[in-house]
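Problem 12. The chain below contains 354 residues. Write out its predicted structure in token notation.
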Amino acid sequence: MTQMGILSKIEQSANYLRAEIANGRWQNEIPGRVDLAIELGVNAKTVESALRLLEDEGLLIAQGAGRRRRISYLARTRGTLKITFLVYEHSDPVQISYNDFIHKLTRAGYSSTIAEKSLMDLGMNMRRVARYVKSIQTDAWVVASGPKEVLEWFSRQDVPVCAIFGRCIELPISSVRIDRAAALHSAVETLVKLGHRKIVMLARTERRKPYPGLFERNFLSELESHGIPTGSYNLPDWDNNVESYHKCLAKLFDKSPPTALFIDEPPLYYAAQLFLSRRGLCVPRDVSIICHDPDRWYNWTQPTASHINWDARPVWSHLIRWTKQIAAGKHVIKRSSINAEFVEGGTIGPAPDR
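Solution.
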């Protein structure tokens, strides 16, 4: 007859703590070893050894001497890891297929979905965003093109988050961003060589406030390096709505028409082209236009759009690696940067003589 094994106090303690974690008794951190020793009726050394066993299993994460251990998301999910996307807007202009990536996550054994409300639906209001996010049960968030205030808030939460683009560069947060510095330098240099001096960038509100983002600051610096004085004219103010955008364009072309425009996203690029055509202005004869992002519909335009291009595939590779780390209980900050290039296209030409 086989003799039954007798569990040690350490193993018994570990089994008890493992069951309590699985039952959801503790949500974020597990109590310290002294409190647990009193509850279990064992000494603190026994509890410490039991906690280390759970660390080895990936259920707990040590946070340093004197600090409580954090309960990993591997322990909390008790099943399939769920990733939720909070997108900028549901007609996201960035040419990344969220649905394609969701299928990739599903094939990799994870569950993912796009939140019903977007940042635009929530009015970029931090209180509304926080209330909405806290109402959703998920194991991790992916935030697309988030403004600084939103990403700052996410960086303080316990739920893992990865930012795709947005104002993430200065924050302690996992992120994947596009490095457009070299592409921007080439684009500005090309325009200056073509005689352009009145160059304007039309960027969304969250790219300009509370202060200009890195890309926008680089744009102003590039102009200044070519001896072009900069100010609010080069980075005009407008609100995130259609009416305000068109009012901004009208004001620009009524008073001191720019000869070249940098435009934030493909939808804004197409809207600007329609505005210009209604004014009888021809691209690139009367004004040059460069878009900050790629778009598959450029293949259908004549002339082809001048734009800043980058490959979306490394974005998904980054997110897959990040998701695997979260599933393994490793809540670490992981950052990636993707280099972009300037595609000259046919929407830029010599500055008109006005």
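Discussion. The first strand starts at residue 60 and ends at 61. Students who got a different answer should revisit the alignment rule from Section 12.3.
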